[in-house]
Amino acid sequence: MSGLFVAFEGGEGAGKSTQIRLLAASLRAAGQEVVETREPGGTPLGTELRRLVLDPDGHVTPRAEALLYAADRAHHVDTVVTPGLARGAVVITDRYVDSTLAYQGAGRGLGAGAHAVTVWATGGLTPALTVLLDVDPVAGLARAGARARPDRLESASLEFHRAVRAAFLALAAAEPARYLVLDATRAADALAGDVLAAVRARLRG
């Protein structure tokens, strides 16, 4: 595969959508093919699974939740990510494996089980760059609360979201070469400049 795989991670309200939009626009302006996608929801199947797992009125047990995300991810990798990389595109995904490790592994308490199912679902495909937009959960949830009705994850306890943040930071500390950790409270343009520089460095490499 000759393309570049970039994942954006972070807690609720971190500003991933904004940074993905800015990165994609900069790369396209330079003539680069870009695939913007997300998990769950990057395919028609993923859209249905997203509705199920994030429905604020729904109830999904932790293991079932992790398996639904894994099903979405397996289909997403096979039908969107891998074909895009094979064409030489920069594939940018809003959430990937590390979200399962943080949300289901740490937040839901599934631990190593969450890791095993994600490895199987992806066939071991890892992003060349993972951008972690780090924000204190109190600030992030306040941002997210300004949107429409909170989904199942946004409605979880503050303790849950603190565990998710700690897990993301631990993952980044364990793989510093893959991660770019940024303070999500900084100005959007400043963040976008750092992200673009990291992506360009990997494209040159």
Automatic annotation (TrEMBL):
GO terms for biological process: dTDP biosynthetic process; dTTP biosynthetic process; dUDP biosynthetic process. It is an enzyme of class 2 (transferase). Keywords: ATP-binding, Kinase, Nucleotide biosynthesis, Nucleotide-binding, Transferase. GO terms for cellular component: cytosol. Its EC number is 2.7.4.9. Residues 8-190 form the Thymidylate kinase-like domain. ATP binds at G10, G11, E12, G13, A14, G15, K16, S17. It holds the Pfam family Thymidylate_kin. Gene3D superfamilies: P-loop containing nucleotide triphosphate hydrolases (3.40.50.300). SUPFAM superfamilies: P-loop containing nucleoside triphosphate hydrolases (SSF52540). GO terms for molecular function: ATP binding; dTMP kinase activity. InterPro entries: P-loop_NTPase, Thymidylate_kin-like_dom, Thymidylate_kin_CS, Thymidylate_kinase. The keyword Kinase applies. PROSITE patterns: THYMIDYLATE_KINASE. It catalyses: dTMP + ATP = dTDP + ADP. Belongs to the thymidylate kinase family. PANTHER family: THYMIDYLATE KINASE, UMP-CMP KINASE 2, MITOCHONDRIAL. Phosphorylation of dTMP to form dTDP in both de novo and salvage pathways of dTTP synthesis. This is Thymidylate kinase. It comes from Jatrophihabitans endophyticus.
